[in-house]
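re: that complex we talked abt at group meeting.

here r the seqs, copy pasted straight from the sheet so there may be weird spacing, ignore it
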Amino acid sequence: MKAVPVVALSRRGGLVPRVWRRDVAAVLIPEERLARRVRALARRIQKDYQGRDLVLVALLSGTLVFLADLIRHLTLPLRLDFIGVSSYGAGTVPGRLVFTKELKLDVAGRDVLVVDDILDTGRTLRRVLEKLEALRPRSLRVCVLLEKKGRRVEPVKADYVGFEIPDLFVVGYGLDYAERYRHLPFVGVLHPQLLDGAEVVETERGSARNGPAARHSAGRTARRV
Ligand code: 5GP
Ligand code: MG
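got the structure back, here u go
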């Protein structure tokens, strides 16, 4: 695949819309740039899968906005399915993955494209890919909106990547922090003090304590924002 756009945190990201200024410290990828890139990814997928009957397997829930935009640029015959996977709740071993929704379609002998929001350590996608491989698809590829290159601990590679981003905890365009901020139309970075506070109080899913938000702790974010 052609070079992936690398995004840096700078003023070029654009001004934070007034309504979001209390929560969002910076816009990393503005709405228009997301739209252009998603269209380009769709064009490539369309070309690569021409003449095939594709099964798109999206990971819940971070892909919701990306997926909705991506599929509306595709004119291939395709079917959609979803896998739910999340880090286990508070008080358990950090990073333990639990499947919360299983695949419905039979993917044996099918061309399968897995769609995820962000490739970080690679642990999630590795588990998902292992599971799918066992079902013997005809082909299996991966499409992610974002990737943080430096943080990989599992040798997972994505075939289609929207943007390479720095090691920052990002929200918006489907990505959450403790289930909030998925509806931001851009990808942005929260004020560090918000991450701090939530790490103490949000324990329901454990994601804020044990998950990515905790790993990218406020200190690291603060220096870069
Ligand atoms: P991995 O298993 O590759 O470490 O992480 C993948 C999952 O962690 C993503 O699907 C996403 O749910 C979450 N994640 C990783 N980095 C970020 C981030 O910067 N922001 C948000 N909101 N979620 C992230
Ligand atoms: Mg996710």
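couple things i noticed - The CA atoms of residues 53 and 223 lie 47 Å apart. Residues 90-94, 198-225 have pLDDT under 50 and may be disordered.
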